[in-house]
Every structure is written in C-alpha cells, then in structure tokens.
Amino acid sequence: MAPVAVHAEQLDTDAVGIPDESACSTRYTERYAPQPSDADSGHDAIREGFDTHRHWGTRDNVDHLDAQQTGLGKPGLRVTYPAGTSSPSDSEEGGAGFYARAEALEGAERACLSYQVRFESGFDFVKGGKLPGLYGGDSPSGGDKVDGESGFSMRLMWREQGQGELYPYVVGLEGVSVGRGNWTFPTGEWISVEQELILNDPDEANGVARLWIDGRPVLEQRDIVYRTTPELTIDGLMFSTFFGGNGKEWRTPRDQHADFADFRFYTPTS
C-alpha cells in the first residue's frame, strides 16, 4: 500500500476532526515517566534521565531546570533558540533534539505521550517551529520519504502567532500541516500536550492520531498509514524543537527559549 504523497502545505480532508474521547492519559495506564537527572548540564541531565540516542544541540542549547525553577515540583529542560537560527540543516544550530526509546512501549500499537511546554513570555513565533512527538523505527523527518517499513514520526509544530498543528511523517503525508489553528499556544505559562497514536493494520489505512491541549480535545486525524508491516511499532519520544522550515524568514530574530517538563508514556490498560 503506497498512497500518493501529498505535497500541499495544509491537509484539508474529511479525515480530520475533533476527538470524541477523553484525554488519553485518563483511558490508558502510565508506564514510564522519565525526567532529567540532577546533573548540572542539560546534556548530562538528558543522557542520565532518558534512554537517548542520536542527540544534537543538547550541549550548547539545553539547560537543566530544577523543580523550583519549573514551579511544577519536578525538574525540566530549557531549550534556547539563538538569534538567527532555524532548522539545523538551514543555519547555525538552534534548538535541540534527541530520541528516547521507551522500553515500556516495546511492541506497542497504541500509545499515549504527555508533556508540558512553556514558551517564554512574549515569545516571537515567527513562521513556525517543531515540537516533540512519538515516533517508530527510523523516525523520518526533514524531507525523508516514508515507505511504511522503516519508520514514521508524528511531531507537533507551532506556527505564526502561536497557532498549533500536527506535523506527520507517515506514508503519503510527509511534512504536511494538519489542523493548523485548532488551538493556540500561550506564552509565559505551562500548557499540557497529550498525543495518542493508534497504528493502522498493515494492510489498511485505519491509523489514528489525536491531540488534547490542557485536557481539551483539539484534533483527530484518521485514515493514516503508519506502516505496511507488523514489525513497525511505536518506539518512544522524538524530542525535536527548533525554528523552521528553511530560509531567513523562519529564523528567530533574537535569543529565545522554551521549557519542557513532565514527560509521561501510557499504553492501554489491558
């Protein structure tokens, strides 16, 4: 099964709506809640607190936040986007990324991820940027082709004036904007993100992705082809955050930062 790739910037289809279900954290069982260690550097806090690989930007652009600094009673991470940066492939490196496998998700065909994000007060969203989400396999991104056998990713994006959207890399939908403007990210305060993925049967286009923001249902995308083989399942967190897109119009005009905390993974109870 290999649907024709959609190259339009935004996806407009009857397969996009609003979830009827309650937030996935209320229906699934929490399995794993990694958090940064007490290491002084953000890089070490990530390496010690998450099962990570393929990291970038964590040495230069990530600081550790203690529980008092987050105000959440638990530690977090502050990611800096230096002035003039956007996508790592486009300009000097801004933001950061790492991949964290969750053993609790091994073989999972359904999973739920929750985390909290806080954009600094007055954050200039420019044209947009990336936010974390779930992935499987080799987590395609950056213009990669998706074949249904090697991997998928399902990140979020912020857009102009803080509009939110889903940003899938799945079969036939590679880097397409889904549900743009269904919610808006505030600045200067924590906001919770919950993402549920239900993988498709390998011979059908029946996969689902859902989002809740602060517990409010905001987006459901149906008829997704994540995979064409049963061996491909949900592996963990694709932590990916930077401005861009490519090109000067995407780059942050000044040093800015966003904070991340309270990552949790869930799978169905039975």
From TrEMBL:
**Organism domain of life:** Bacteria
Among InterPro entries, the record links this protein to: Polysacc_lyase_14
**Pfam families in UniProt:** Polysacc_lyase_14
Q: Where is the Polysaccharide lyase domain?
A: 73-263
Region: Disordered; residue ranges are: 67-95
Name used for this protein in its record: Polysaccharide lyase 14 domain-containing protein
| Organism of origin | Halomonas urumqiensis
